[in-house]
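One thing: can you check what follows?
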Amino acid sequence: MRAMQVTAIDAPLTMTEFEIPVPAKGEVQVKIDACGLNFADTLMIKGTYQEKPSLPFTIGMELAGTVTGVGDGVRDIKEGQRIAAYVGSGGLAEYATFPADICVPIPDQMSAIDAAAFLIAYGTSHVALDYKAKLQPGERLLVLGASGGVGLTAVELGKLMGAEVIACARGKAKLEICRAAGADHLIDSDTDDIREIVKELGGADVVYDPIGGDQFKAALRACNPEARLLPLGFASGDVPQIPANILLVKNLTVMGLYWGGYARFKPSVLTDSFRTLIDWYGAGKLKPHVSNVLPLDQANQALDLLRTRKATGKVVVQVS
């Protein structure tokens, strides 16, 4: 089997070949059809992500494929079943083994490309907005980085949940994609004053922020009393320091979200969210936005689309 591996920190991936892994007890073997890429993959390559596997390792946090083998003790997943999974790493390979209890069966009408683009982006936004912030119909949701992989799903889910959605992204083309996903108001982060526009619209009740830096600072000062802020990434490279006096005066709540962490200490949060999201997909309420699909041997080019922010929505590598 082939895999695109990290063999040196902050270097291009290398195509390698090795034996197909055999599932251990409680594991499944999966023939991977597609792997969704995420900004966190680029951080893992640089060695700056919070999880640092030993070299060499295969990146790829989410995947879709077909079960080709099951280990002892596996009861609920069968050979031949189509699944998606959040695996943390290992998705940029033709085969992988991982615990059966992280597999999510996918419906027949869901393509492998859609499934590989689904779990992390929609899962992050749904857990953030529903489980953490408890977004209510009629509230005003500000989404920073709104045209990116997770940001666009926050726009879509926020609208589905009944919020008034303000999308903040770079440039007219990306903002039009946000409008198509359901945004009610658009802010160009390159030219517009985020703070003033949000305040003119009535202020933010919930802020969804994968960007950090100056955009977070502007959003903080545009919040309504009792607003909830969700820092879930720092794509700007700037981790903002939050003035506690502003939190005090406005009765604000800041809710950190490391979505992947729930897989270890409270996996039911993820599995419950997945069930809801897949039901919504089956009902035609969600449509993953995939801007680029590239083959396995072009995984480095696919990652460059994320690094240079040329992609909108998700980038997917088609493995087979």
